[in-house]
Amino acid sequence: MTTAIDPELRTKIDAACRMEEEFTKLYNEKVAKKRHQMTRLYMDNGLLVWNENGANGKDNIQKYFQELPRFEYIMNTLTIIESSQGW
């Protein structure tokens, strides 16, 4: 037996999926092609965790990205998790 999803909730879920997909696309384009602009996406006290490695602060995050080898990113799956504030 399937239950129907409330139309308002469905609209919010669809919007969240579109926003997350666009953010992920832009973020990974920056990592792959415009690493020198990555600090624009982080606060001064930002924290980055990448493959179990970390960097604290905007300057250290920029340095971390600059030292990564070049790569091409292909998104296969996307997961959206509801926050404690709701959708």
Automatic annotation (TrEMBL):
<dbReference type="InterPro" id="IPR002075">
    <property type="entry name" value="NTF2_dom"/>
</dbReference>
<dbReference type="InterPro" id="IPR032710">
    <property type="entry name" value="NTF2-like_dom_sf"/>
</dbReference>
<protein>
    <recommendedName>
        <fullName>Nuclear transport factor 2 domain-containing protein</fullName>
    </recommendedName>
</protein>
<dbReference type="Pfam" id="PF02136">
    <property type="entry name" value="NTF2"/>
</dbReference>
<feature type="domain" description="Nuclear transport factor 2">
    <location>
        <begin position="21"/>
        <end position="70"/>
    </location>
</feature>
